[in-house]
Structure formats: structure tokens, C-alpha cells
Amino acid sequence: MIPAGPGICRRIGVVSGGAGDGLKKAAEEGVDTFVTGEGPHWTYGLAEELGVNVLYGGHYATETFGVKALAAHLASRFKVTWSFLDHPTGL
After folding, report:
1. What is the pLDDT of residue 65?
2. How many CA atoms lie within 13 A of 82 on its CB side?
3. CA-wise closest residue to 12 among 72, 45, 52
């Protein structure tokens, strides 16, 4: 967590996986809190300069919810069954 933005979040940007290097773009879009999986070390200083909160939730963890949501949507639409094989690498 990089607590560099406002105490009350008004505009939150979410990008799964390793999108920390998109922090500047998120700030340019008016995001005050950026949630993603992982990012480079230098984003700490950049977040402070930009005044943006950053939450890194883990690369794998932030990617799985989207896959599950898409699978549920497709299963509902096309009446098919699905299962998710949770297999994090631990890296």
C-alpha cells in the first residue's frame, strides 16, 4: 500500500496483474486511488509526487477474479458449466 493520496477515495482505477507502471496514466485520468497487482519500486515516489493512493493486491490474486467473472457470465449466457483451477505459483 502506498498511502499518498486523499483519505477519502472518490475515483478508483483498477487494472489486474502487473500494471503498476500505469500509475502516471491513471493519475492523468483523474484517479485518486489505483488498485493493481504489482508494480516497480519507483512507483512509491511517483505516487507521492502525483498524490495517488496505490494498493498492490498481488499479480495472481488480482487476475483471477476477472477470469471467474467472465466464466460465470459465459456460463449463464450459453448454459455451460465451468470450474476454476486455482493454482498460484507462490512467486
Report:
1. 84
2. 16
3. 52
Averaged pLDDT, 38-50: 97
Rounded CA separation 67/17 (Å)? 12
25/66 Cα distance (integer angstroms): 21
Strands (E), 3-74: 12-15, 33-36, 53-56
Q: Is residue 12 within 8 Å of residue 35, measured between CB atoms?
A: yes
Whether 42 contacts 20, CB under 8 Å? no
Per-residue pLDDT, 29: 98
Which of 17, 18, 12 lies closest to 65, judged by CA?
17
